[in-house]
Amino acid sequence: MTLHKINKKIVSYKVLTKERAETAQPEAEKPSPESMHENIERPEVLVGSTYKIKTPQSEHALYITVNDIILNQGSEHEERRPYEVFINSKNMEHFQWVLALTRVISAVFRKGGDACFLVEELKAVFDPRGGYFKKGGVFMPSLVAEIGHAIESHLKHIGMIQPEEMSDHQKQFLAEKRREFEAHHGAANNGDAFPEQAVLCTKCSTKAMVLMDGCMTCLNCGESKCG
């Protein structure tokens, strides 16, 4: 038996039963959800997606693979985060800087935190020799920018970037305006997504801006020079 000396006046008391003792025990602290950091060990298997890039500047396509790691799998805090990037092509012209780029991007992904800034940095790179238009009228200022667009598509796919979507009302309004424009100027030819008269929109980088009702309006994103 252990004796305890009481040095203060007793003002109240209660009998501690076995049930009360179990209730009085502090609850075990729940482990905090794991977040991405550079010390996470690479699992044997990663899930990912591969994106094909075909530019008019090369006869060979580039294949961008982004592999993801699943954190807190099976719990309410489960999340998918990019872990590494690989870029492959038969074209060896850009091998040196492409390899360096993949290593830097992968290192930033594994560092943790918000890596979405990489997308905007890559998309802002331009080629001094000039960019090119993709199918559908989307302008790419450089090959690096298109790699940025591919990574952006992946981050949207796993939920790290929330896409900005137009409302149904906006979509309906643009569809009506497009029908009005094509009724006066003719529909797009050769399978083009937008009319031949369209010019480049500075907001979405798509050749989809046309003059309607005395105002330049983008048929792709809704950007209007008249506000």
Largest sheet: 3 strands, antiparallel
Give the CA-based shape. Answer: elongated
**Strand order in the largest sheet:** 1-2-3
Helix-strand sequence: HEEEHHEEHHEEE
DSSP helical segment count: 5
- Count of β-strands: 8
Q: In percent, how helical is the residue content? A: 25-40%
- The residue-averaged pLDDT reads 84
Distance between the termini: 84 Å
Rg of Cα set: 29 Å
Percentage of residues in strands: 15-25%
Uncertain runs: none
Q: Which class do the helix and strand fractions yield?
A: alpha+beta
Please give a structural write-up:
The model has no long low-confidence stretch (mean pLDDT 84). Helix 3 packs antiparallel against helix 4. By secondary structure, the chain is of the alpha+beta class. It has five helices and eight strands.
Defining traits:
227 residues, alpha+beta, three-stranded antiparallel β-sheet, 8 strands, 28% helix, 19% strand
In short:
It is built from 5 helices and 8 strands; from the N terminus they run αβββααββααβββ.
What is the fold's blueprint, element by element?
Blueprint: H1 18-24, E1 47-53, E2 62-71, E3 79-88, H2 95-111, H3 117-123, E4 132-133, E5 139-140, H4 143-157, H5 168-185, E6 199-200, E7 207-212, E8 215-218
